[in-house]
């Protein structure tokens, strides 16, 4: 498949290379060394053309790789995540009664869902709090009463994560897990 030429100068260079190839082929008998040299020259030219095309902005300053033919390269912008997209990634629910380990696993799963669904930063808290059940939704609703809804949903994910860690990972619970870990014995 021939490469697209990005400018007249590139086209002239390719034509000159082709003429040189023909001149070399006509001047000497075709040997394996000459064929190899011709191939290497053409590959080098093709790679240079490809690199030029890849790095060029063609005077437009936007990197659209417009070849001057009036058609632009396809630039895809990621689709904004909707609540349905978020739910399609099957986020885990959080009840607030499971403990420190489950909370850490829930954080990891929700962050994975953010990545997969391409969830916008401004929607992360809003979508996440919809996965709360039981004690967690009661805690969140009581927080919503202390601040306005706009303020609550304007917080970022790190702030919500920190609030949940303070609420659901009390220092005594973490200390108990540390002691349990230190006291583990290997059963033989």
Quick summary:
With 188 residues, the protein is mostly helical. The protein has helices spanning 8-27, 32-55, 83-88, 100-117, 121-129, 134-146, 149-154, 157-168, 171-182. The protein contains 9 helices and no strands.
User: What is the structural class?
Assistant: mainly alpha
Percent helix range: 55-70%
Termini distance? 66 Å
Pattern of helices and strands = HHHHHHHHH
Structurally, the number of domains stands at 2
Helix tally? 9
Strand proportion, as a percent range, falls in under 5%
Task: Let me know the number of strands.
Answer: 0
The low-confidence parts are: 58-62
What gyration radius follows from the Cα positions, in whole Å? 31 Å
Round the mean pLDDT to the nearest integer and report it: 77
Assign an overall shape.
Answer: elongated
> How does the major sheet shape up?
none
Domain Retrotransposon gag: 127-185
GO molecular function: RNA-directed DNA polymerase activity
Organism: Tanacetum coccineum
InterPro entries: Retrotrans_gag_dom
Which terms summarize this structure?
9 helices; Reverse transcriptase domain-containing protein; nucleotidyltransferase; 64% helix; transferase; elongated; RNA-directed DNA polymerase; mainly alpha; 188 residues
What do you see in this structure?
The protein folds into two domains: 1-76, no CATH class; 83-182, no CATH class. It contains nine helices and no strands. The radius of gyration is 31 Å and the shape is elongated. It has helices at 8-27, 32-55, 83-88, 100-117, 121-129, 134-146, 149-154, 157-168, 171-182.
């Amino acid at each position: 498949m021939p490469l697209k030429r990005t400018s007249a100068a590139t086209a002239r260079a390719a034509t000159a290379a082709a003429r040189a190839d023909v001149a070399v082929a006509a001047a000497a008998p075709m040997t394996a060394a000459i064929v190899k040299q011709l191939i290497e020259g053409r590959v080098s030219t093709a790679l240079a053309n490809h690199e030029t095309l890849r790095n060029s902005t063609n005077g437009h300053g936007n990197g659209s790789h417009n070849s001057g033919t009036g058609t632009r390269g396809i630039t895809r912008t990621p689709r904004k995540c909707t609540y349905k997209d978020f739910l399609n990634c099957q986020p885990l629910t959080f009840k607030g009664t499971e403990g420190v380990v489950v909370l850490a696993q829930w954080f990891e799963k929700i962050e994975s869902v953010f990545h997969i669904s391409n969830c916008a930063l401004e929607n992360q808290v809003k979508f996440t709090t919809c996965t709360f059940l039981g004690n967690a939704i009661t805690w969140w609703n009581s927080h919503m009463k202390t601040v306005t809804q706009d303020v609550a949903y304007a917080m970022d994910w790190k702030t919500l994560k920190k609030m949940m860690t303070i609420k659901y990972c009390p220092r005594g619970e973490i200390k108990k897990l540390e002691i349990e870990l230190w006291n583990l014995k290997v059963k033989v």
